[in-house]
Every structure is written in structure tokens, then in C-alpha cells.
Amino acid sequence: MYRDTPKYLSDLYNDLGVLHLYTGNTGQAKKDFAKALALIENKVPDNDPRLAVTLNNLSNLYFIDRRWSLAESVMKRSLHILEQSRGSEHPEVCVLLVNLGVLYYGQGKLDSAETVQRRALSIRRRSYIVVFYRCFPKFWAHFGPIGWSTEMVSSHRSFADF
Predict the structure, then answer these.
(1) Does residue 84 sit in helix, strand or coil?
(2) pTM, to two decimals
(3) Confidence check: pLDDT of 145 > 50
């Protein structure tokens, strides 16, 4: 068998939790996420991305259940883990920041929501646009004819040139 069986089982339980979450079975999703966390929480380093992914999914469940403070604390823990393991400018951090912004917005914390959404946008601009432009430069040349303004294309290109 696999040497890292608990890690693989944890991934499977996490995936099952996501499936149950999106089909509306939040009770089973919570059990699946709990099993996933039990398998890896004390068996992997504190900054393991797998832990962050499962925690993020669990925070989404708490968000759906309107358990705002619990969702926020779990999401912040997940964000901290990803920033430690991947770096504060990684695209996966951007995804968690967007989620955190949505959570803040749902709670009416509009200033906090704007702050994290702006940070997420900044990361997205630096990471996705740069990679996309460098990989598909001919694609960018066709933006003008399909309705994108020259200013828009120029601003995106400036991100790729830093």
C-alpha cells in the first residue's frame, strides 16, 4: 500500500465533503471534513497545503450555515497556512482572499471586504495576467478587434512587463 495512506484518505474525505457540500448535504460534509482533518491535522507540518484546503472547505460549510465567526476563524487559519507554505502572493492565496472578502461582505464588514478583495485583485493581476500574456502573446494582439479597448490591453500588458 501507500506509505502516506492517511494523506490520501484525507484527500478522499475532503473530496467527499466537497461533493456533499455542493449537493446540499451539509451534515455529511461536516463529518467528511472532520474525518479528513483527523487523518492529517497532527501528522503533517503545520503549513501543509492539504490542511489549508480542507480548512477552507470547512469554512465554506460554516459560511453556508451562517456561522460567521467560526467560518472566519477557520478561513483565517487556512489563509495563514497557505501564506506560509506557498507565499503571500501565490494564486491559491488569492482564492482564499476572495472567499474571505465574500464572508466579510456577508457579515456587513464592507471595509474589511474591500481591503481583502483589493489584495486578491492585486495578486491576480500579477500572477494570472503575467503568465497568460507570456504564454499567449498572439492572443493579446487580437483584443482590439473583439471589443477590448486599447487602454485595457495596455494596462494588462504593463503587468506583464514588470
Answers:
(1) helix
(2) 0.73
(3) no
